[in-house]
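Dear Dr. H.,

I hope your travels went smoothly. While you were away I took the liberty of generating a structure for the chain from your last submission, since the lab meeting agenda had it listed for discussion. I wanted you to have the full record in hand beforehand rather than looking at slides cold. The sequence, exactly as received, is reproduced here:
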Amino acid sequence: MSTFVVFDLEFTSWPGALEHDWGEPGQLREIVQIGALRLSEDCSVVEEYETLVTPTVNARLSPYFTELTGIAQETVDREGVPAAQALGEFLGFCRGQTVLSYGNDMVVMGENIAWARARGEEIKNSFLDAAFVNIRPWLNTVAPETAQSNVGRLWSVLGLPKPAAGREHSALFDCHSFAAAIGHLRHHGAELPVGCL
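The corresponding predicted structure, in token form, is as follows:
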């Protein structure tokens, strides 16, 4: 059975960070949560992956980030794993797969891998063992009503049932929203870009 992966990240943020592209001093896009789903060709879930990651430079989460994501400092302190470990495990989950994102999350992933390596940390598994593809342009073209939507709202914008428990800006919930949107569009005749399956 052919499978592919959809993934989403939550990373450190502050008021105005998006508008200024994390350009203020000390504002690094450090990953705090990774969510991913392995999907079959019919977009049903085969396997889930989720982890919390302990940020290094900005170890204290901003109140803005916590309000946005619902991820509390205490939860990250208790359940978070070091970035190198989380990144290696995630890349292992993706090995040999096409990995789809709704936006350029693979760029943020690459930044975090580079920072971990610069700290002398080993990342198990390679970024190059998977084919990362941003399909937001395709999705927004096929369903123009999604153009202004974040990934966690895709299900709602498309008029679909809520795909899972949880809320937007939770990485795994956002993956379920993404998967529901892809499945809906494929069911209505849209073909994924070449190489995505």
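Two observations you may find useful: Strands lie at 3-11, 31-40, 45-54, 81-82, 98-101, 131-134. The mean pLDDT is 94.

With kind regards,
E. W.
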